[in-house]
Amino acid sequence: MTMLSSAPGGASVHGPVPPPPSASTTTKRRTQGGTVLAVPALVWYLVFMVGPLVAIFVIAALHWPGMLQPVSFAGMGNVRAVLDDPVFWDAVRNTAVQLAVALPLMIVGAYMLGYYVAQKPPGHRVLRYLLFIPGLISTPAKAMVFYAVLSPDGLLNGALDKAGLGSLTDAWLASPSTALGSLIVLDVWSGIGFTAVLFAARLGSVPDEIGEAAQLDGAGHWRAMWRIHFPVIRDFVGVVTMLQFLWTLFGSAQNVLLLTQGGPGSSSTTLSFLVYQKAFIAADLGYSQTVGVVLFLVGLAGLLTIRRVFRQNY
């Protein structure tokens, strides 16, 4: 293709015109630009996500008695020490009980509560805010509230005395039979409201025609909740279950630290708290990160299981 241009003296000169860039060239340039923009995020991910993950497996093979102490290779010694430690098996049992009790209660209760809110009953907007309040309270504040309720001279024992049920009073956080249960109650209370708000938001996006068709077929709220709406948002339930599973598995250490310190004995010690205890109190980093490897494998297996259970069947 040529174009006319003015030359000195007024004569017209024909010159070549560069062809417009092709679609493939434009796409290639955009891809290269997107790759360059993604580099900082990729570096951040490698340094702060993959790096610590690799460090866990490396430290698990070391004998490291404190941050400033000399390091030596331990091989499988840390694994043998962990497997021979009865406290580790107590932590495994407590973590299994915590997940088996807290996770179903939280997910089922939150789904039912979210379904109720999604029906927009009177005052449903205020109810959403009230359900979200536990998610806005810091963990130390939650622990203080539960300590005030469950301490020997706390609100719960006081209420039982006033009701003539003094024989049921107990040192809830200091009793081997109730310490773990108290922590589970705190986990459920902390997570059920926030999770219910998430479910209500997802259920609110389900087309109204589905609920109307279920009502025309004579389905009550219970049947519509579990047989109609639940299959529609099944994949979202799986995502929320994964999040709560990870939070319960890895985040329980802070509640244990603030309320029971893993006691009495090891009756409320969980795997995540054992990682903290061995690293920062016992100064045994090799043992701590060996438990961290176990915790990582449990989390990975749990995520894959939850994903398989809640995947869509259509």
Structure description:
The chain is mostly helical and 314 residues long. The protein has 12 helices and 4 strands. It has helices at residues 23-59, 77-83, 86-118, 124-136, 139-150, 155-162, 179-204, 208-216, 221-232, 234-259, 271-281, 285-309, and strands spanning 2-6, 12-16, 62-63, 72-73. The strands form 2 sheets. It has a two-stranded antiparallel ribbon with strand order 1-2. The chain has a two-stranded antiparallel ribbon with strand order 3-4. A hairpin with an 8-residue loop joins strand 3 and strand 4. The longest helix is centred in the first third of the chain and has 37 residues, at 23-59. The radius of gyration is 29 Å and the shape is globular.
Helix percent reads 55-70%
Point out poorly predicted stretches. Answer: none
Total helical elements: 12
Q: Tell me the strand percentage band.
A: under 5%
Distance between the termini: 55 Å
Rounded to the nearest angstrom, the radius of gyration is 29 Å
Shape: globular
> What can be said about the biggest beta sheet?
2 strands, antiparallel
Strand arrangement across the biggest beta sheet: 1-2
Compressed to H and E, one letter per element, the order equals: EEHEEHHHHHHHHHHH
